Amino acid sequence: MDSGYKVAPGGRLLGRLRVPGDKSISHRAIMLGAIADGVTRVTGFLEGADALSTRNVFRAMGVRIEGPDDGRVTIHGVGRDGLRPPAGPLDCGNAGTAMRLLMGLLAGQSFATELVGDETLMRRPMRRVADPLARMGARVETDGDCPPVRLSPSAGLAGIEFRLPVASAQLKSALLLAGLYANGRTTIIEPAPTRDHTERMLGGFGVRVERDGARVSIDGGQRLTGCAIDVPADISSAAFFLVGASIAPGADVVLEHVGMNPTRTGIIDVLRLMGADITVLAESEVGGEPVADLRVRSAPLSGIDVPEELVPLAIDEFPAIFIAAACARGRTRVSGAAELRVKESDRIATMAEGLRVLGVSAEPTPDGMVIEGRPDGAAFSGGRVEAHGDHRIAMSFAMAALRAGGPIAIADTENVATSFPGFVQLAAGAGLGIVETGAADS
Ligand code: S3P
Q: Do β-strands 368-372 and 331-334 pair in parallel, antiparallel, or remain unpaired?
């Protein structure tokens, strides 16, 4: 609760930037590398607290993992049945992805585990994973809907066919990982496409995953072979600069080597629908994931009704999208995004509260928000907003200062380090007037 930001109004963003490695891919690289046969070498790994929590969890289960050292991690895989019982509870920190994917991976182990996390994570829903795992034969206990999660050895998992009740890549991934340890075939049916990093990466480790429309299937018993993984820059971290450079007059930024997996690029589609000037350059592919450089220049934005099919493809970017909406001409409506209420914070409530503090007309709805933009001059007043420990809320309000009439103070920003270590330095270097503050002056 003690660290905060103070961001001076105005400024513009310029230059070439490389944001840190993709969080989703970094978690998965550790997990799959740990249960593979042989060595997995990772470059571009996210040196943020969330990915380090996952590394620590596997170290606690006897996996030798070197690094990160300048983004390089070496994982000495122990094979699918080589994990060892940990001495105590496994601490996932702030990382929902770590906890949910681990539930799937650990459900089929021959030893018991307990998964815990920080204050925020201990309030997040886990039954969505525990229930289908129980149907596969797992012995899993939660405290109501929440952690701690306790897994005990079961008589064996059996593959199931399961239709996801929510569009969730974490849930899909947990069941695919459990499916690796199950007898027979596990098939998951998605209500809408979600990020497919698990499927792609399993393929890189030599595991067959079949995709047929909305159905994804995996046969149990397959082994993984260690491989090389180049983690692209995280489009969810690039998103703050895509929005910042769009709303700041005179901005011109190139974001380098950004992951462009089509299940993650909803932010580009949403911003382009609003009129953003984003050019995709130097497209290539690294380790089964598309990457590109993104050039973004300031542009007048217009309010839109965000198409609901884009919501799962931009799910982590809504705090930033709300900032763009506040600077757009006209009204922006977001719906079909109730999942935002169960992220690191209730992102509908937290953003609406902060936007109102900054003088923006923002009407929260059960599954979204309606925002009236202020396209001319200062879209935000100065003021003091609360990040409520949510990294993406903190970084989104930092970008709002580019179009504010006075300084913006942001409280409770510590968790920015979970996904974006070095945010302040990178943003300040590009032209944002941001400094870190302590509790007394935040
Ligand atoms: C993630 C999936 C998404 C996303 C989260 C990372 C992943 O969560 O919000 O930041 O790595 O699979 P849900 O699966 O809950 O939508």
A: antiparallel
Same domain (yes/no): 206, 264: no
State which ligand 1 atom lies nearest to the alpha carbon of 28.
11
Q: Does residue 30 share a domain with residue 17?
A: no
**CATH number for the domain harbouring residue 47:** 3.65.10.10
Whether the CB of 169 sits within 6 Å of ligand 1: yes
* Residues that are catalytic: 316
201 CB near ligand 1 (under 6 Å) = no
Q: Are 74 and 30 in contact (CB under 8 A)?
A: no
Does residue 289's CB lie within 6 angstroms of at least one atom of ligand 1? no
Run means of pLDDT, 10 residues per run, the chain, 442 residues: 90 96 98 98 98 98 98 98 98 98 98 97 98 98 98 97 98 98 98 98 98 98 98 98 98 98 98 98 94 98 98 98 98 98 98 98 98 97 98 98 98 97 98 86 44
Q: Between the CA of residue 239 and those of 31, 262, 264, what are the distances in Å?
A: 26, 15, 11
In 3D, which of 111, 218, 235 has the Cα closest to residue 174? 218
71/42 Cα distance (integer angstroms): 8
- In eight-state DSSP terms, residue 339 is G
User: 84 and 173, same structural domain?
Assistant: yes
Alpha carbon 129 to chain centroid distance?
18
Cα of 358 vs centre of ligand 1, distance in Å, is 29
CA distance 312 to 71: 28
Q: What is this structure's pTM?
A: 0.98
Q: Could you say which of 183, 213, 230 is where a domain stops? A: 230
